[in-house]
Specification:
This protein is of the alpha/beta class. It has 9 helices and 14 strands. It has 2 domains: 103 residues, Alpha-Beta Plaits, CATH 3.30.70; 153 residues, Rhodanese-like domain (Oxidized Rhodanese, domain 1).
Length: 281
């Protein structure tokens, strides 16, 4: 069952905020969790995915509405404390990021395409200030764990683009280079937009005998915690909502979908799909 409702419970003059969050947590009854989330998100817009492995979502609303939702997610008795301590990454909106609210039940909250991976058994979390120093080290391989079009729009200095068209392509790149990294005594550091892709991937890489360092909270958290993030970052950060892209101060830019997908081999398909999704909510 999907929840897809158009809402407008904030006044036009009221500042609109975006909140991104996720947590890997074993859910015994994900359908019940999804049902409760549908109730709690009535005054909001956005998208939340629910699976047995946890939740992954983005919602938008006024400060008061987000405060209430974030508190309920952590304390509502229906969730049994599964989401206590979940981290929320907020950014202000110039463009309304979503038109509707959707809560969807999925098999995975982030599809790596490898069965049996426990995203809670993750790699080594590195806070932003320590990350700045880590990625300067000569023995560190810095991997961008996002799609190639996201990398082209913005990236950390000296990061490697694995040329991923879909997140499911990332494991092959790792498998092709893992022995080389081990032989050279390299450490792998990964980053992604909000951290979820890195958590799932690093949990899988641990099963291959390699610990991975990952940016705590992803790019969005780095921008939040490091006011001079532009020292380490080139360009902008793509976000999967109607705002398109943010700068290092979490401000919406004037980048368009044409700017993002132009030059890609499948640019016409990606552009048409993105516009269709934006129009739908």
């Amino acid at each position: 069952m999907n929840n897809s409702t158009t809402t407008s419970n904030f006044a036009p003059s009221e500042p609109l905020w975006h909140s991104a969050f996720y947590k890997f947590a074993q859910l015994d009854d994900p359908d019940a969790v999804a049902d409760r989330l549908r109730e709690l998100t009535v005054p909001l817009t956005g998208s939340v995915l629910v699976a047995t492995e946890g939740i992954n979502g983005m919602v938008a609303g006024s400060t008061a509405l987000l405060d209430a939702f974030e508190h309920a997610l952590q304390h509502d008795i229906a969730f049994g404390g599964k989401f206590a301590g979940i981290v929320f990454k907020r950014s202000e909106c110039k463009t309304v990021p979503f038109r509707k609210m959707k809560v969807r039940r999925k098999n995975e909250i982030v599809p790596l395409g490898i069965a049996g991976i426990d995203g809670a058994k993750t790699g080594i979390d590195v806070p932003p200030a320590e990350w700045r120093e880590l990625i300067k080290q000569d023995d560190v391989v810095l991997l961008d764990n996002r799609n190639s079009f996201e990398f082209k729009l913005g990236r950390f200095h000296n990061a490697i683009d694995p040329n991923v068209v879909n997140f499911r392509d990332f494991p092959k790149y790792v498998e092709d280079h893992l022995d080389e990294w081990k032989a050279e005594g390299k450490r792998v550091a990964m980053y992604c937009t909000g951290g979820i892709r890195c958590e799932k991937t690093s949990a899988w890489m641990k099963t291959l005998g390699m610990d991975v360092y990952q940016l705590q909270g992803g790019i969005l958290n780095y921008f939040k915690e490091m006011p001079d993030a532009e020292k380490d970052w080139d360009g902008e950060c793509f976000v999967f909502d109607n705002r398109i892209a943010l700068d290092t101060h979490l401000h919406e830019t004037d980048t368009t979908l044409e700017d993002v997908y132009g030059g890609e081999a499948d640019s016409e398909w990606r552009l048409a799909r993105a516009k269709r999704l934006n129009d739908a909510g």
